[in-house]
Design goal:
By secondary structure, this protein is of the alpha+beta class. It has helices at about 1-10, 60-80, 110-115, 120-140, 200, 210-225, 250-260, 270-280, 285-290, 310-330; strands at about 20-25, 30-35, 45-50, 85-95, 95-100, 105-110, 155, 160-165, 230-235, 240. The chain is about 35% helix and about 15% strand.
Amino acid sequence: MAEINHYQSSGALFRDRYRVLKVLGRGGFGVTYLAENASLPGEPRCVIKQLCPKTQNALSLERAKVRFRREARALANLGSHFQVPQLLDYFTTNGEFYLVQDYIEGETLAQEVRRRGRQSEANVKQFLREILPVVQFIHRNRIIHRDIKPSNIIRCERDNRLVLIDFGAVREFLTDIDNTVYFQPQTTQFVGTPGFAPPEQLALRPCYGSDVYALGMTCLYLLTGRSPIEFDVDPKMGNIQWLHSVSVSDHFATILDKMLRSSPEDRYASVEEVERALDLEPHLEVLSDCMNTRSRPIFDLENESKTQYLPPIQREARAIRRWRMKRFGRPRKSPLSIL
């Protein structure tokens, strides 16, 4: 940590190109700095993430370097999407790992809610439609974000697009995983934010549906301005109890409720399923007219038209129904009653 702090205080260029301006944030895995790239025209701003491995073992550190480079290349592929910061550089020095990414100037959704207050249902639906494509993109690249939350989504000041930041993919392995017996399974470390992360992620078994849960919790934050810990939890099922806290349409309540199910088996398994559910809403009125929820009426056998042409099998079925009507007083349900 001391090395980059020295460049910040002295004004010297880090790696002969980065002018470190200030600390943007600190966390369990390291520090994020705002910097300028003095080697490029206009000295564009960038973000330097200093990741600190939790290991002192030389072999562990070397293996971590290999995995770091592999994960950094994966992040470089993600950066081709306009809603993900572009990875500009990655390197290791003095046993510490660094990522350099585009600086996205704007407000996080958490800052937006603190400044403007709760958002309407229409705005939250629009948020989902804007953010789902980028989550779908990272899932197609076989990466689970694991830390989707309002403070990790920025609304870009320049063009108003939503940008997803702070991918945890490069952080999980920066722990001392090799100081164990060879045949023991590798241990891992929780990546995410309690409250926004579902139970299976807390149990270190995240899936694509874990990001769906985090998106649902982010929607709930936008609608209410309340953090996850402010909601009660059903002691039997483990689902958060939120319906009484916000007024939304029945259809959107159904979508949110399924996104927020504690069990991944009861939740949407993919963002594509959420998109389909959202897209269904404009057609609900038309679809309801097509749904027959009433039982079939009993045939008025005495007044059926005798002049209407019927195929032989239907004439025989009608004769059987009339015979049953005379004998039993009402038609009996049978496979032939549909003819």
